Request: fold
Amino acid sequence: MKKSIVDAFNAQVEKEGYSSNLYLSMATWAEVEGLEGVSQWLYQQADEEKMHMLKFIAFINERGGKAVIPAFEQPPAEWKSVKIMFNEVLAHEKYITESIHKLIPIIQKENDYAALNWIQWFVDEQMEEESNVQAIIDKLNLLGDKNLYMFDRDIIKMRTSETTAE
Ligand code: OFO
Reply:
């Protein structure tokens, strides 16, 4: 695989790993706050992000590049409310979507059709993740802060309807 793609994919390894750590940090915050359902959702999300990172690592190595494991910046550890936190999740996912989309012209420039085909999975995955998080925010807005107990009880059911990531 061309160096420009290996470098861009390695930069994405860092972003997926940071996403995993960010959601882990949110999960432990929610757990300590007594929000069992929210923390479960976030622990599972952290696992998914780690899986995304591993997908990039495997693809880079399989295609003759070398995946490099970077240092990760420490994520924040406190949030003022669940709503603020989920808005941050959505903003972060939008940032990741943009970052995945920016990989496409780099791949196209090298005419690497295998990589182009492979990255499509992430394009679809990001669309799904953004809509899942938006649905959570909508539900949170509907229930209001007073019904946090109900929200916490129901959030995990919102995950079971998702397509499980490969
Ligand atoms: Fe949710 O971001 Fe990975 O791809």
